[in-house]
Amino acid sequence: MLPLPKTWLATGLTAAIILLSLIFLLSGCSQPSKPAGGDATTAKASESSNSPEPVTAKTALLPMYSSAYKWAHDVVLLRLAPKDMTDVEKGAGKAALWEATFASPSQRAYHVYSYAVAARPPDIYQGVTVGSAVPWAGVTRDVMPIQSSQFQVDSDAAYAAAAADAAAWGKKNPGIKLSSFQLGNGYSFPSPVWYVMWGDKKLGYVAFVSATTGKVLKAKK
Questions:
Q1: According to the 3-state scheme, what is the secondary structure of 30-93?
Q2: pLDDT at 69
Q3: Are residues 189 and 124 in the same domain?
Q4: 57-107 per-position pLDDT tens digit
Q5: 160: domain CATH number?
Q6: Residue 197 — left, alpha, or beta (φ > 0 → left; ψ -120 to 50 → alpha)?
Q7: 77 closest CA partner among 125, 106, 54, 111
Q8: CB–CB of 96/90 below 8 Å?
Q9: Labelling 56: which of 113, 163, 196, 201 has CA 20 to 30 A away?
């Protein structure tokens, strides 16, 4: 191999030094400047975007039903209710954690499914969680399947109807909180109902809201 002339080596070395200098300068100029308190602002924005938002019953039901259908194609919904999640307040018919009971006539069993918008270790996992199979004797007068065609009124609309019906009672009994809220079906009503209760049986208000029409079918004080 023939040696390169010294002038070529010098020229090549000079070009390399110039190129490296330009790269260094350009990389320094391309970095964006941080505003004052940028780290704190970014952290707050990230924390805000990651804050879980409560959802309605129908939003939570879809992924739970999809999971239950994989278990058995004849699954029926028996019960649907919101559950408590620390640091995420539930109310107005929305919750960050929902629980549904699905049963299968062919399997003679039921599973309790849960859907959470966020994880809260060690007990709550984000997404759908499936409980163990429990033997099921079948439909009874008090616990009947909730047909999808009859489930037309979402939880937020049902809560609004119940709250409007209980408004006068609420003014006379301020500060009494919602104690029970669930969807079920039984022989007492022609279609599935939302059971909405404030307080307790001694001092409370209960409204049964049709999950098909959204009307208050019955109320107890």
A1: HCCCCCCCHHHHHHHHHHHHCCCCCECHHHHHHHHHHHHHHHCCCCEEEEEEEECECCECCECC
A2: 98
A3: no
A4: 999 999 999 999 999 999 999 999 999 998 888 889 999 999 999 999 999
A5: 3.10.450.40
A6: beta
A7: 111
A8: yes
A9: 201
